[in-house]
């Protein structure tokens, strides 16, 4: 069973985060008791059987990669690969671990390269990553100098993927993932930077989501928001039907200008659109580690500027804002 004790000890010593202990352990205990996925036991056993390796070389600045001083044997590598393949599909990455490359569906490193130049220096910062997936970006945040990166994501497979990678990175305690949604978070007002990447369009009430993000930031803290947008002015918002690019639960896709206005309406200042990028089938694609349908299957085969439902193809924006 995945143990959160180290995280509790860590935040107990942190004056900004220690009051989280009033609610968090009870929430985790309730989750462990009531909400476990049918395959969770199998996934967590795969994590349990992985060796805890201490990297000789660890690079989190340019990638998420670890090397040992002498190469692992074929038998060791095959054993590790089998356990990691039990945790498929791998969506966010890539990871390079002791000569084993996990080629994930998303080239999340490309997104990071687009976001990083626009961030305030992460050195020494405490960071919250909302909807963090497997935790790939948290490792990159640590590589960029973050003191502590805390991710929240209720998807239990992602928790097991994160714990597997952490174990292979020497049980690194600078990043932690909690199986929570943002709506379960108290208003901590404790994080220097809050990331919400690829979450907003899945929220039924996007302005509530922006308020929830604001409630996690310290005064003068920075919000990094990355989400789907459409072309248009500040009054343009797409409300898709049953599906958008085959995804269910896509509620609102605003224009970047509308999103900027929403952030200002929620009291954020210095709101700026720093990047716009059409998602390519090189950035999101089927791989040996994610073998089901991917972006190429979600676009109109006769017109790649549209989804199979006829909506504009995925365009993503990065917006940075400050809590005054």
From TrEMBL:
Carboxy-S-adenosyl-L-methionine binds at residues 92, 106, 111, 131, 153-155, 182-183, 197, 201, 316. CDD domains: AdoMet_MTases (cd02440). Its EC number is 2.5.1.-. GO terms for biological process: methylation; tRNA wobble uridine modification. It is an enzyme of class 2 (transferase). InterPro entries: CmoB, Mo5U34_MeTrfas-like, SAM-dependent_MTases_sf. It catalyses: carboxy-S-adenosyl-L-methionine + 5-hydroxyuridine(34) in tRNA = 5-carboxymethoxyuridine(34) in tRNA + S-adenosyl-L-homocysteine + H(+). GO terms for molecular function: methyltransferase activity; transferase activity, transferring alkyl or aryl (other than methyl) groups. It comes from the Bacteria. Keywords: Methyltransferase, Transferase, tRNA processing. Homotetramer. NCBIfam families: PRK15068.1, tRNA 5-methoxyuridine(34)/uridine 5-oxyacetic acid(34) synthase CmoB. Catalyzes carboxymethyl transfer from carboxy-S-adenosyl-L-methionine (Cx-SAM) to 5-hydroxyuridine (ho5U) to form 5-carboxymethoxyuridine (cmo5U) at position 34 in tRNAs. Belongs to the class I-like SAM-binding methyltransferase superfamily. CmoB family. This is tRNA U34 carboxymethyltransferase.
